[in-house]
Amino acid sequence: MDISTSYFHQNALITGGMGFIGSNLARRLLDFGANVTIIDNLDHDSGGNLFNLSDIKDRLQIIHADISDDHQLAMAVKGQRYLFNLAGQMSHLGSMQDPFKDLNVNTIAQLKLLEVCRINNPEIGIVFAGTRQVYGRANYLPVDENHLLTPLDNNGVSKRAGEMYHIVYNRVYGMSTSVLRMTNIYGPRMRIKDDLLTFIGWWFHRLLMGDNIRIFGDGSQIRDFNYVDDVVNALLLCAANPVASGKIYNLGGPPINLLNLAQLMIEINGSGNYQMVPFPEKRKRIDIGNYYGDYGLIQRELGWQPQTSLHDGIVKTLDFYHINKEHYL
Q: What is the pLDDT of residue 1?
């Protein structure tokens, strides 16, 4: 399926568009000839970064607003064909430290957004950025969409509520909504200045600064990773394909343990080292243990699968930050 034709001269809105995934998505949409609008509040806890869009800002419309701003949102959604709903509070630790912010951003604001769309543009196609965090600790591997949902932190609970609001609006109002449960995403334009949003972003930071990668525990924990271009492909496939309406899909990739990941990153970087450190108690309590996802459903229904190997993705990511690190550290 050539998805580029689905977006040529179409209007597309991205919430959280100045962030990591949103800014990469915006670039692809512009390449496809879409008319792109961005909404972002540049919250200091988010991945929003003005530099992410600095070279293409004249080619799209940027609205500095929060998705809970009904008036701004109502104006923004009118006339839009697609909505990529990437705005959210992503920090697992942050959701425990400030649970009400997490609740407001990931549930109340999401419900407001859906109501605004229902009233002002019920024909819009919406893809919601979900998370594998809704599963909690895995009972079996790989984890498919039928796995029991037992989130371990407030972020998993709020993101579950957010995804279900989207599914309810599909079932009750017939709106075209779908959900992608994302795993660890990495690549250019991700937040790497701290470990607030992703541990792999922080590992890139430490490599770039010549510091040791710090691995919690013994490094045997299994994870899977998706390069951001592959996630963008999944978002575009979901929005363009009517089969995805009302569906929840896992993303995922080949599993790797964290020790091997650190060794691979150091090898590709050409320098660096790692050290094992005890698991911080506040993180250990919400750690999901081993995880990798079964992405068979989206592969069968939409033809998606990861195209970028972990090795190649790390090369591309390091190349980007070696050139642009002053904007991200």
A: 59
